[in-house]
Amino acid sequence: MFTFPLSSILDNDFYKVTMQQGVIRLFPAAKARYQFINRGKHLFPPGFATALRSAVNSMALLKLSPKEKRFLQLNCPYLDPVYLDFLEGYRFNPDEVHIEQEGDQLKVSIEGLWYRTILWEVPLMSLICELYYVLNNASRIGDQAVIDLARHKIESYRDLGVTVAEFGTRRRYSYQVQRLVLQSLSTYGKGSFIGTSNVHMAMLHQTKPIGTHAHEWFMFHAARYGFKMANAMGLEHWVQVYRGDLGIALSDTYTTDVFFKQFDKMFSKLFDGVRHDSGDPLVFADKVIAHYQSMGIDPKSKTIIFSDGLDYDKVARIADHCRNKIGMSFGIGTNFTNDAGPEPMNIVIKMTEAHPQDGEWTEVVKLSDERGKYTGNAEMINLAKIILGIHS
To answer: What's the pTM value of the predicted model, to 2 decimals?
Structure first.
């Protein structure tokens, strides 16, 4: 029988925490809707929705412990006391999650106040993955093999001379596998391993929680301010909340080319760098380098965080291309936490609609540098491309 590990409300990606503080401060009355997208066309066994419903209901028991609050106070000084007090009182509300199953097809949606629903995506995805393997009786390699494989990988990255963070919560094989991977990375990764996106795992292994914001931050800003202002207002509000901390900007919500038109000298100097999440990483790196040079900024003073479907070969190719040109680091997800035997799932949960305080429900879209990663209604995607002058 599948039992969700009621370990921590912080078993979530750090960018959800940082965005939640921003939403509470700037958009406390905004609402959001999210939808599960089954990119891999996975077939779900009978009873899956019932088991998922039970696991989701159990999440209402999660709460921030005094120890966890202290960890955030000591390691994340940009999270203010009012927000940490809020998080201490926060409880998941399972009524915000709607789950249906028709045959082998799963439907999951989320709706509610944005500052509340923002925390659902990552644990829901990890639940779906773990439950999928359990109910399909998919066996994995043993614990020691998981540890040894992660050790081999991190030692290989260290030999490449690159720094690596673990970003694999959303599509992990299981909670236990991620624990084992982090144990191995923490033990054997000195000189290369720099932290994890999972706040709970960061506390367990006394490493750095890593993350800033996700696509939904800019998607909401498009609903509130329009497509042309989404990037600029999203960056402006991030600076307003964090005053120079958490300075890695996500660049591909409406394509990188559109982003850099608004990533002016002020933003280029203020932000520490950008994150790559779609499209050809080498082409992206060249664009970033050229952008900084056009602003009179030394690219070597800035950093690109690469995070798109990475494995050793891809990291080695990127590192060889970028070395001595620009700073770089790598966020590796599924290849760390779901390389345990069965095929990794290809699923996402994305914001589909936003309701600003003084507005109405508005469909939102994401136009990444890879057409296969577009999300949203086709008509709204076409409208965004027209407004933003995207011709691909």
So the answer is: 0.97
